[in-house]
Amino acid sequence: MESDIYETAWQKLLDSIxxxxxxxxxxxxxxDTEGExxxxxxxxxxxxxxxxxxxxxxxxxxxxxxxxxxxxKLQIKETQLDFLEPGRGLMPASFxxxxxxxxxxxxxxxxxxxxxxxxxxxxxxxxLFLLRAYVIATEQYCLAHSPEFQKGIRLIxxxxxxxxxxxxxxxxxxxxxxxxxxxxxxxxxxxEIQSLFYSALLTARQLLIPDRENFKILKAVENxxxxxxxxxxxxxxxxxxxxNIIYRYKGEEYGEEALxxxxxxxxxxxxxxxxxxxxxxxxxxxxxxxxxxxxxxxFSLGNLMAILSSLTTxxxxxxxxxxxxxxxxxxIGYMPxxxxxxxxxxxxxxxxxGCDPKNRPWxxxxxxNWPVLxxxxxxxxxxxxxxxxxxxxxxxxxRRLKTDEWAEYYDGKNGRLIxxxxxxxxxxxxxxxxxxxxILDNPQNMKIVxxxxxxxxxxx
Length: 460
Ligand code: GLC
What we know:
With 460 residues, this protein is of the alpha+beta class. The protein has 17 helices and eleven strands. Helix 11 packs antiparallel against helix 12 (314-326). The protein is globular. The structure holds alpha-D-glucopyranose (GLC).
């Protein structure tokens, strides 16, 4: 029975592989045969991450290498003069194999066809994450050190680090620019992007050769790491102690000495609910920070990736795991795990989602449960030595995923309902489940997903 579910999952994963020039190049988002494909027949960069990880773990490294090579070719390399094209360095959200006059080529979507025309900021950050995982798993540093890859990494860093209209060390992005690719009030400096940005900076520092060409960009990377970590660890952190401080904040403070630097009005944060909800030994990184804005929603991906990239301190990482353990019903429930908590309701839902019916309260991105988050939960649990959390979560997922035909997401406050519009045979659900199990069973696999404190030079 046990092994049966893993065998089925593996088979389904193999079925989802896309071929280009007769070689495996990625996996489709979903193999659902019921609904209209829309763009679920494409390979999304973010969706491919758990697939790539499990392929690397199982020694099927060729597909990951070819994916990295081909997606690198799709990256925007030149600045367009009419400035209507996406920026240099951007990676597509997704691609598919198309045929023109019997010739194959890869057609990329940079958000220019996607619903809502959302910018896939996370793609280039995930791409770097995968490149690092690949070189560590295969020890083929030469791939990352080749001129094309060095240029690709440099372009991503230049795009992220270019001068902007912004005063913060975090990355300023539009709404819907990552896994939550619909309007959800996450424009500005959302946590998910910051965690991925931090891991991308660490990766660039590890993989860029310190030569004359990279000198300037390496310096810019180095200069950004510390302020970014300090900013997030302090200003995004919320525990009872911080809540007490924010609750008594004074507004309208001017100058360097201001305590309430972002002019947060405590009435804007749900301190009554938070003072009941937050466990005594718990804490987490809030979802977003801006002028008079502190978004106190708990976003799982950002918090888990912050643990994996060591953006959070060891103490903070433990506190996040405490929240997950003690708020189990809210954050895990019947399917690991909630994408964000709590859901936006009433007027907040109307204003922040634009009345999006797919993102009704406790559905889809607005408080739905997403099995893809399982691999990150398992890895964060492994890193913080809280493996019982991973074990329990995998058991819960194993009870339902196969019967529910590997649903994309779940609805309801406790994640008990299969998502109203969820695809079946969603590839990242399948891959994440397999990946979580491998990470739990073999801590050695952590080396491809986790960044150590002071993780400086890994390859020469
Ligand atoms: C949805 C998700 C997005 C994912 C895509 C393909 O749009 O929000 O994160 O990449 O589906 O699975």
